[in-house]
Amino acid sequence: MIKRPVVFVTRPLPQAALKAISKYATVRLRKTDSIIPRAELLAGAKQCDILLPILTDKIDDALLAQTPRLKLIANYGAGYNNVDVESATRRGIPVTNTPDVLTETTAELAVALMLAVSRRLVETDKVMRAGNYPGWGPLMYLGHGISGKTLGVIGMGRIGTRVAEIAHHGFGMHVLYYTKHKEREVELSLGARKVGLSTLLRKADVVTLHVPLIPQTKHLISRKQLALMKPSAYLINTSRGPVVDEAALVQALTKRRIAGAGLDVYEHEPAMAPGLAKLSNAVLLPHIGSATIDTRTAMAMVAAKNIIAFIQRRSLPNCVNPPRLVRSA
Ligand code: DGY
Fold it and tell me: What separation in angstroms does the CA of 83 have from each of 25, 72, 78, 89, 93?
């Protein structure tokens, strides 16, 4: 690694992190707070040693083929499906992410979505603002509560586990989960039960998604899976949009095949499937799972620490490539 590497940061980040990185490297910051056009991303990536991209920046094989100078991709985010890790690994480029620091914040938002959609918060807020509240009535604005009900967690990683804990301890929810491996800890502490996907979908009152986006999880929830859910059940997605077949979801919500959905992510983000925005039984958020000042700052600091460790040739924290990466700093 050259003495003072160039770090290209594709989007404005909390200052503290930029300051930390600039002690060890020359920071080239793209100051515009909008999605970077591909040509600009490529030009920036070509001229840097270290790239600090965000989840909307596609770091694919075609881009990596043109950036021989690149030595590290320090992705801002826990998810890194925007980076072709296989291609990076082949080229000896480590990829890091920023996990852990956003677990609580994202879990909070999943729980907020559960409550918002099941108690119709957004829909009824609109009623009030429009001056359309005719006065209290026993049959008005009824939802399905979540206390004592069954939560189905798909993907029992850090965030899934935290959602399960809050739901179990806070709302007395019974927890079913679907994941590759048995998670002893959540079974012991929450009485959670590992089940097959179909069983989970049939039994859960709330289904919450916490899987990474990989080829095997694309459209994990599609028409067939939605058809298994109870008509009174809710689907929550704070993971990645393409895990859900959004057109199939719009159909299921329109026909009231399921009671509602709380979404923070979209299949073709930032666009939404036709018809979704019109549905009153969907709560729709603009990917704010980790959006608190503290968490976004903490994520930036983790990215900075990853970069500094790399520059100082220390062992690389949060490296997501398979073990035995080819080239070192
Ligand atoms: C992540 O880090 O993967 C999140 O989606 C950002 O909130």
Answer: 23, 12, 12, 11, 11
